[in-house]
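Posting for a labmate who doesn't have an account.
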Amino acid sequence: MEEREAAPRSAAVAAPASAKAPFPITAASTSTATAGEDPAVPSPAGNSRASALTRRLPLAAICLLLSAAAGAALTMWSGSPAGPAVPGAAGADAAPLTPALIGHRLALLAGTAALTALVEELVFRGVLLRALLRALPHTRALLASALLFALPHALPIGLGSAEAAPDMAAAALSLGLKFAQALAFGLVMASVAAPRDHVRASGLAIAVALHGLYDAVYFAPAVLATGTFPATYITAQPNELAALAASILLLAPAAVRTQRTQV
């Protein structure tokens, strides 16, 4: 009698164990069920930010390089036999160009351009734009940061000693062109640094690299010819005014496009 009751009890004990797992649970089924929560799987938001930067970067890079190259070419060109006319070139080193001197000036050009790009991008895009994005809608934050970036570039620094600007009309024209150039440049840099809703480390690093390359190309003729960067943006030289105007025209498509592709 006891043996007959033991059998049903053992069957009853075994039944729940088999009922708990009617189908085998494997690692594949577990990973399938939690794939959407896997931190290694990119989120849709991350994909949209990356695609936004990918869409804007080629146009921005092309316009920046063309703008810098056009500015450099027009700055280097001069109608006088004395050579390139660059702002702040008065009293510049007129020593003949030797390989050692060229190497020294190239090092000065590269180092100054890299340091300037790093400082300005960290301040205007890394700190200022990040703060503006917390307080303003995305597009307005980009515009505000670009305006704040352009204002220091339009200050009349060197107005009293600028031999190339004989009157206030020439000074106002050159500073107005410089403001427009810096505004367009600031819009492009802000869009690269913050492709969607916040400043990204990758975008900021790209902005630093593009900024440094732009300055190195744009100011190459002045630095190689004189051994120094321009002391002022104020000028009345036609080739320098044309360089500013050409760089604005080439930067404008990237500045407009980056604002229209906000996602």
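Reply:
Got it, the structure tokens are right above this. The chain is about 70% helix and 0% strand.
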